[in-house]
Amino acid sequence: MKTGRALLSFLLAAVMAFSLSIAGGAAAFAEGGNPVEAAQEYDFVCTRMSVEYLRYATGYTDEMQPVKDHYVAAEYDSYYVKLNADGTGYLFLGENNQGAIDNWIIDGNLLSFQAGVSAFDGTILDGIMTLDFGEGLFLIFAIPGADTTEIKNQIISLQAFADLVLGKTEGVYSMFAMGFGGQVKGVSEQEGSSVLTLNEGGTGSFSFDEDTMDISSWTVDGNAVTVTLTDGSSSAGVIHREHGVIEMDISGYTVYYGREGADTEAYLTPTSRLSALYNSIDALAGAHLSYRLHTDFMDANSVYDVHAKDGAYYSAATVQASGFENTTATFYKDGTVYSLNLGSMTGKSVMSVPSGLLANNPLTMDTLYAAILSRAVRSDFTTETREVDGVTYTVDIYPAGSYEAEGAFYFDDAGNLVRYVEGPPVIETGIDIGESVYTIESIDTAVNEALFDISGYQISN
Fold first, then answer.
1. 299 φ, ψ to 5°?
2. Which of 153, 201, 348, 372 would suit a FRET pair with 94, their CA atoms being 20 to 30 Å apart?
3. In this structure, what are the phi and psi dihedrals at residue 397, rounded to the nearest 5 degrees?
């Protein structure tokens, strides 16, 4: 068994020693031509590694964290791959690792070539070449001018990757998000900075903006972390080694700290069904919501048809209650909210909204969309199955908070939201309002832009 330090040294040697021979084996050459645009010289950018590669390269048998693949820096700036238009080329992976490419073929984005005794597979996309060296190791190359910004922003050091894989606790963790009430929000450097430094031996430091305090001790018991400052105050937290993240409970907030290479997307980009739905709705490009609403209060039923695009919003509502039926519409455009009477083709402006408040997403005026929006960023939900009219649904249940009622979102087998049940208000109203049940007919992009023209209405102030 190797120690962490010995493993890293061995890993460095293993990565430096990869050669044409370890990538051997017959590649499945694709049928196709040799497009002129692919015939260029590709310079080395970085490697991409997986946990499986580290295990393969080192033979390490102790526990490794299931971290995602990372782009890892390597000092191979002289490496290149040259593809000539005649199907030949040259592969340079160091003075002792170079040779002519006898034949290269590209089919769509799939690349195959033969160099000496070895065969390679890879891809070329937007001027970026990825070569597969097997066992979870990839080398990334790019032509001059290719946009490699996204890749370079994710490159971490080999030491940082090894620390993540080994689940090392010591290190420097920087704040990237804060959470409260089940919601997590990213924190930019302009909004504030905080750094948690855990040194070997159980000491360290904690800073927030310009203030820095020493840590007298820190301990880890399983995944539980306790940090004690020299003034005697302490905070508890949880370490997620697979993400390189520590959550600390500070003054009622959950503060998220990540080390180099931390998987912050796991916290800032929720992967729930509801967040996927929210991310698919684009009010600027065009969104259409059609649903029915039943409320316990007055046993009322309503039918809603909602359209939004390019900063305009239209919502028609037909309400049936106590034997009466009425249809009205709410319209928003250019900073003004209007109430429209569809029967008499009259309307009035009811509110002026500060510029920019609704322009980017007027759908927030719709109660169903607002319910989706407020909970899509939350991770504190439970999932169960429920049956409605003989059909079983997967239901994600978001608990009630200090101001927000419980919300239960019903998804069918295809992942579509078909029902939303909102619990009674948590704020005392003096009226027994009860539940609200939304039955969703469709959420799509079928926007009727003709509804955004109210020139035929007689509008009063």
1. 50, 50
2. 153
3. -115, 120
Per DSSP, 219 falls in state: E
- As given in the structure block, the two tokens for residue 249 are 């409970």
Tell me how far CA of residue 244 lies from CA of 93, 158, 163, 279, in angstroms. 32, 14, 9, 26
- The pTM assigned to this predicted structure is 0.59
Q: Are the C-beta atoms of residues 421 and 438 closer than 8 Å to each other?
A: yes
Q: Residues 313, 331: contact at Cβ < 8 Å?
A: yes
Report how far residue 74's alpha carbon sits from residue 427's, in angstroms, rounded to the nearest whole number: 57
Digit-coded pLDDT (tens) for 239-291: 999 899 999 998 888 899 999 999 898 788 767 899 889 889 998 899 999 99
Which sign, positive or negative, has the C-alpha torsion 171, 222, 225, 269? positive
Round to whole Å and give the CA distance between 244 and 242: 6
Gap between the Cα atoms of 328 and 325, Å rounded: 10
Q: Residue 310: which residues within 8 A CB-CB, separation 6 or more? A: 284, 286
State how far the Cα of 222 lies from the Cα of 324, in Å rounded to an integer. Answer: 62
pLDDT, one tens digit per residue, over 167-188 is: 899 999 999 998 876 667 888 8
Distance CA 148, CA 140 (A): 10
